[in-house]
Amino acid sequence: MIPGIEKIVENNFLKKRYVFLTNKEHFPGLRVPKKDESIACKIENTGDEEYIPGLLADIVDDKDVLGSIKKILTNFKNSVLISASYDGETAGCIVVLIPSEPIIYDNCKYTPDQVRFAQLYVNSKYRRRGISSHLRYAAFDYWYNHYPDRTVVGIIEGSNDASLQGAQKMNYNFGGVNYLIKFFGKNLMSVTNCTGKWEFLLLFRGTKFKRI
């Protein structure tokens, strides 16, 4: 398909995304980022309402992403924030969603036997230094040591070549596909096929599941 037309279709009618599933037996096969003494990852205390807002403001220089992260941490208490520093300066973060009930995030449903990494972000001053790889691995390490019996679900847009290449380098396990069906940009339905099982989720009306 012609790139310009493909983008119009993706934004307005149909978006394809790839689903990656990681279980505890996959953890030893994940690629460990190259050791870098300049990079340090830390699990933050999200209950510290004086410290966290300032930390996020230092890291996230995108207003929309900052709002999304704050919304997750405010509305979903059962989440973990991992920060990264570079040469002692705050540089990035990632959120680990740990559902205690079925939830909807990023137009997909997640259940209490799953974990989802959300809003990986590296400050524009510190990109292309390997920080995102260290954050991803720190999130996987946290999951493996605290919730190994859950499955980590990751979703990457089919047009996001950089993230798909990163997933390949990390040795992510491909699990299936997700399609967002739209009508002129409005999401109507999320259709997922993992391990041969189809799941349909209506998005244009109210749902009993908590939306994050």
Provide the CATH top-level class: Alpha Beta
Residues in helices, as a percent range: 25-40%
CATH architecture: 3-Layer(aba) Sandwich
Name the structural class.
alpha+beta
Strand order of the largest sheet: 2-3-4-7-8-1-9-10-11
Count of domain modules: 1
Tell me how many strands there are: 12
For CATH, the homologous superfamily is named as: Gcn5-related N-acetyltransferase (GNAT)
* Total number of helices: 5
Report the order of strands and helices.
Answer: HEEHHEEEEEHEHEEEE
Strand content: 35-45%
- Tell me, what's the shape? globular
Computed CA radius of gyration, to the nearest angstrom: 17 Å
CATH topology: Aminopeptidase
Regions with little confidence, pLDDT below 50 for 5+ residues: none
Largest sheet: 9 strands, mixed
Q: N-to-C terminal Cα separation, in Å? A: 34 Å
Q: Mean pLDDT across all residues, rounded? A: 92
Polypeptide structure, described:
This protein is α+β, with helices and mostly antiparallel strands and 212 residues long. It has helices at residues 3-12, 52-59, 63-75, 131-146, 161-169; strands at 14-22, 39-43, 79-86, 89-97, 103-105, 108-110, 114-122, 151-157, 174-183, 186-194, 197-202, 210-211. The chain has one domain (3-211): Gcn5-related N-acetyltransferase (GNAT) (Aminopeptidase). The chain has a nine-stranded mixed beta sheet, sandwiched between helices. A hairpin with a 2-residue loop joins β9 (174-183) and β10 (186-194). It comes from Methanofollis aquaemaris.
